[in-house]
Amino acid sequence: xxxxxHRKVSVADTVLHAVCAGEGRPLVxxxxxxxxxEFWQPQFDAFAPTRRVIxxxxxxxxxxxxxxxxxxxxxxxRDTLAMLDALGVGEADVVGHSMGGAIAxxxxxxxxxxxxxxxxxxxxxxxxPLFLELFRLRRAVLEQMGPEAYLRQGTFMAQxxxxxxxxxxxxxxxxxxxxxxxxxxxxxxxxxxxVMAHDLGDxxxxxxxxxxxxxxxDDGITPMGMSTDLAGAIPGARLEILPEGGHFAPIVVADAxxxxxxxxxxx
Length: 267
Prior knowledge:
The protein has an eight-stranded mixed β-sheet, sandwiched between helices. The chain has eleven helices and eight strands. Helix 4 (about 130-145) packs antiparallel against helix 8 (about 185-195). It is an alpha/beta fold.
């Protein structure tokens, strides 16, 4: 496992916890709803030998400081820009997964000169009725049953059963770290609202970065059709569909995911 450099970065009204490793052209990884950079560890290990990999815990999650008020994908895109400024990074290639892909879309529209190549992973340009209903259910589970039930539901949806079956032996042990890292009900509800509100519609047609849209065929949170729709709406975007991996393909099929990214980023 690659050793990460940990940095505290002041942005606007809060302090973010950023991580970096490696040398070379910057490659920024933006995480999804969970908000913690550690999600990307398998990809850090894959890319740090040839790239400067960078990520951060979203405000109010992980080791970043809390902040008041709602957090939209556009707000978190501004946080990303401020973090890159603080780290002295100009242009970078960017990978955004799920909610992180929503942030990356905003980033590409907000500061196109800062984006080299863009990877949009298991994400969407506008919500569908199925997607909204899923997140209404997830919100209800959190409100009515609490964080542990919410985290269990999310885990079972995000990772294929064949992958979990090999790793799941005891529920208490499996979820202990996740429950300990939970940012709080109010923060998580705000983040769910940001997920449901992300709707750029036809605005993504203005993205000019060379773009790869990647997903897994068996993703049960952001179904394959959302990625197909997104790729079709961005001029010249390439679409890659992994045969398996679920919503957490960057972890579940980490090697295949890294090969797919590398074939695009290094071309």
